[in-house]
């Protein structure tokens, strides 16, 4: 009976450990595949584009002409580039106009 209770307690712990190991492997693989031109997010939430990669460091351009260096392990994930706002369709309810709903102009 005691061994059954021990087994019931051990199984969830093993499942949690296996899941964590799988996630760590996926993150390590993503960090190993970082290359210039990829948009990334650091663990602290900084977004930027990778411009240079050395053994354990990554240079990220966070604004035009502004680059910072990060440890490779600080890269949390790669992100898909944001679509150009000019290409995106804007929903009508988010468009601000200078007219009231009845068509008369708003006064300044």
Describe this structure in words.
Residues 91-108 have a biased composition (Basic and acidic residues). Keywords: Cell membrane, Membrane, Protein transport, Translocation, Transmembrane, Transmembrane helix, Transport. This is Preprotein translocase subunit YajC. It is a single-pass membrane protein. With 108 residues, the chain is an alpha+beta fold. It has one domain (2-82): Roll (SH3 type barrels), CATH 2.30.30. It is built from one helix and five strands, in the order H-E-E-E-E-E. The chain has one helix spanning 2-32; strands at 39-42, 47-53, 57-63, 66-71, 75-79. It has a five-stranded antiparallel sheet with strand order 4-3-2-1-5. Strand 3 (57-63) and strand 4 (66-71) form a beta hairpin. The radius of gyration is 24 Å and the shape is flat. 6% of the residues are buried. The model has no long low-confidence stretch (mean pLDDT 82).
Descriptive terms for the model:
108 residues, alpha+beta
Structure, briefly:
By secondary structure, this protein is α+β, with helices and mostly antiparallel strands. It is built from one helix and five strands, in the order αβββββ. It starts with a helix and ends in a 29-residue tail after the last strand.
